[in-house]
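Provenance and format

Records in this collection were gathered into a single text stream. Each protein contributes a sequence line and a token line. The two records reproduced below are adjacent in the stream.
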Amino acid sequence: MSELIEKLRNSPSRRNPPYRPLARIDDAEREALKRKIGGVENYNGQAMRELVQAAPDNLELRKAMVSSIMSAEFAGIDAFSRKVVEWQEWDVPESLILAMARQTWDEVRHAQLSKGVLESYGGVVGEYPDTLAGGQGGGGGQAQAAAPAPANGGQANGGRAQGQAVAQAALGEAFMRNPIASLSMTNVSLEGGALTLFKGTSELGRKIGDHLMEHCYDYNWADEVTHVAIGDYFVKKLTEGDPQKERFALMAHARHEMMRGNLTPAQAEELKAFFAEEMERAGEALVSEQPAAGGYR
């Protein structure tokens, strides 16, 4: 299994048609998006739902909305299937591996449903760019130092800044390669957000008389309820009786919510202060105790 894991870890995410990340589209495609949906800034689930509700007869807007959602489903297939392979060498329950396999199939079904809805509007996969372009690239997931030490900060300040950058990079790597963090960020935070996304999309379908949209995204919503429950269950199981791991799980969840912009300014500031205070302690807990195979202890 180790050879397969190593090969997978260093293999880029692939899809036919190939992934085309939104962040990398050229000026011509940005102009095209502006003509179709009003601009790149509208290419997200919330904004697209509002546009579709305002102009329900505009099939181009529906194609864009479904494409933005479908992109995340393909990324989910990639991410969860990698976990099924990599986590088999980690110190996690076998039932967790089976749960990741089940979620991989759920994401396949979600992608198929979105593809069917998209095709009902005359759209095709790859017509719009990807909001999430696969789980990893070749060697993806390797954290880099946030920034070099300042040139004129003095040896003490410069050394401290460099140390913080290295700690941030190591901490980021620990988050990406740790099942507690993965479950907290993906199943609890991200999939929790998907509950709102799918519920809103299904309700939109009902409001505009698009019964296929209503039906398909209601199915997706039901799966996300299970995915969040899986996250809650296994986070508790992996942290049971260990306050340090419980704190880590909460930190991972909060960190992801902050990255997604789901916190008030006051909450974000509180978390920034928390992370600053905990950096040295967290770095030691999350990095120095990581086993070579990438386990969580």
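Adjacent record:
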Amino acid sequence: MRTHAPEDVRRLLAVRLDNIGDVVMLGPALRALRAAYPDAHITLMASPAGAQAAPMLPWIDEVWPLSPVWQDASWSMPFDPARERRLVSALRESRFDAAFIFTSFSQSPYPLAYACYMAGIPVRAGQSKEFGGSVLSHWVRAPADSMHQAERNLHLLASVGVAPSGAELTLAVPPESRASAHESLRRRGIDPEGRYVVVAPGASCAARRYDGARFAEATRLITAESGASAVVVGSAKERALVEAVASAAAPRAVALAGVLSLPELAAVIERAAVVVTNNSACLHIADAFRRPQVVLYAGTELESQWRPRSSPALLLRRETDCSPCYAFDCAFAMQCLDIPPSQVASAARRLLEAKEMSFRAIRKEAAA
């Protein structure tokens, strides 16, 4: 069921209105679209947060940030039908030939598909469990909820005749972002070519965050046991948390909260010996660079849906009857993340030792 011949698609819209990590996981699908439509102008429509990943996605030509009413999880957007009519007008003026609407297992493609229909976009591909008439020109039945989200994106494309170009995550850090990130590390006494651990204690919702005090103790143990420095990262909103974790491991830890762009953060993660993170964007960025990682993986989601697929990873969580809850806040004292800091540090040590053993094997082979 091929959507259109490549030469007939001059302007293509790819939509993923979610968090940063979701846009990072869209990379394999964008790569496949570029291979299938090599001459098309590809626009990525993403949330303002997700749009930050655009400089590292070489398959797109532009990014269109959008905060749509159907993604308003806080129920705070004002009632404004004129806003939606402006969206339809903007889509019409852009003269897209095709729109591929990527969603998670819990989201519907139909709100944006209807806007695309009203804008006159002839090809509108999306996947859903629910029937929606001809709002989608290409309705794909959704796969099992347990499918990994990167593979779910590829499932949509394969179902409409677009072949994958590999399923692994990849990111391309702009050279200027790498240079500025390394300079930020040097100013804080961290050798960007040296051995350091990245610690990312934040997450997009409270139910995915390992306890901050325990994160701080785990960081202290990791730096004390390994001798490695720790770079504790986070957004400006997470500054207090980041600084508390870094201060617990002082003087072998530095805080970088709200001072790095997303490509700069990726450049820091790109060189990390180990990444210690919650289920957050840093997990997916580390996976794109095949960085070893310890993941404090809350029971909010199934592991099969979001886990790293390429990097050496140890996922830590306790089994609970309420998982997966898909909740933003936990009503049960975060029992799924009741992990002793010593266990987190032990997992990081195992990955660091495995990495050192690998390096020694490589050196021994080269010497022979």
